[in-house]
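Treating backbone geometry as a discrete language has practical consequences that deserve illustration. In the encoding step, the backbone of a single protein was reduced to a row of integers, each denoting a local shape. The amino acid sequence and the backbone structure tokens for this protein are reproduced below.
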Amino acid sequence: MISFLLMIILFPVYSAINPLIVKESALKNHPSVLAAMEKFRAREEAIRGAKGSFDTKIISDYKRQTKDDYRNTVSRSFLVKPFPVANSKIYVGSEQISNGSGRFSPVYNTGNPSTTGQPGNYSVLGVQLSLWKNLFLDPNRAALKNAKYDAKIAEAEKMLTELDIERLSQLSYWEWLTAKKIKGVYEELLKNGETRNEFLTARSKKGDIAQIVVTENEQYIASRKGALQVALERSTRSEYALSLFFRDENGAPIIPNPNDEFEDYPSDLTSFLQNLDMNSDIDDLIKKRPDLVSLQLNMQKSEVDLEVARQDLKPQIDLTTEYFQRTEANPNMPRDYLMVMAQVSIPIERNLGQGNIASAQARRMVAQNEMSLGQQAYKAEILSLRKAIQLRLEQVTQAQLEYQKAKELVVSENYKFKTGGGNLFLVNLREQAQASAEETFHEARLNFMDAFLSYKALVSLKN
């Protein structure tokens, strides 16, 4: 009993390769999925970086005047907190003013609006905000908005990548399976020709048939070997293509073994359509489709850029209010005072604003056109695939019927040939036709899966 359990642990039960296993492996380990996740994470972290524009800071400055008899020194240290409202900030700190000569320096010598020219230490509380330009939107707030849009775009792109990988991984499985089956078709066709050649060679040596019959059959064998080489190449390429999605726990590609068990096509392909929504409202799908959501977000980003550009034509009126309070008693000096300052900047030439606005408007128009085209293309693809699925299902039915009839003809022609009523040319012709019909049948099923998976990816929504 213990040895049996050890065998289960050391040698886990083998599961046949199937589309679900390949899909789950790809979603977990495919580099495109991992890259999309990291891109989304990077965009989320970029939001935090944009919020850093409103981080609290410590700002200090030091000024010293040495001209003439004045030895004026001004040092300021503040704790500054910007806010995402009216381009405002609040700061609190201290200002120290000294005059080594005992003579007071005039205010303009300090270059600082809060300095009175009177020595002393002051506690300072200040508020600054914009009253016109940058009142409702400034570059820092715009950067934060766009960072949030970028994160949503990255999330949509991650969802779209997952949908694409789901589709491509499953389609690569069915391509591998189809190539495997077509290779088997031409292996069997060649085997039949070689077996017949042995029979014909033996009869030729006995003098029952002419050597030209053997030569003719060898020509057919050469043709079948060439067809098999083409099928082998396709099968090899499909194995490596599947390995890009079928990966181990470390993410390394796994090339399927020719002897691996696998899931075959179901006998009735309509089973794939049982849970597929073929009548959903396209306008509702458009609102949730990841790539179309990204286009809508790009449109909103362009609106933000346009509004920022419009700020360049507005007069700038910034208001600063500072409250000063002395930290030491001085009967000759006021205990505290309030200073109010307005800074005004009016653009005279308008090249900056008009140029930025025109550029932003052009980018907005690009975003509008891309969104319009994306919605139209999506709708056209949905409608065409709904019809294509049904048509390709009918093609599978017809290809299967053709294959069945071709098999019946081969059986009949082989019987006639063995009983002396047929000829080698017709036998080979019937076998070639059967192989071609079987290949067409397998290709028709693959084409159906392509349409089915493409449509499913278009209407599926990731959470």
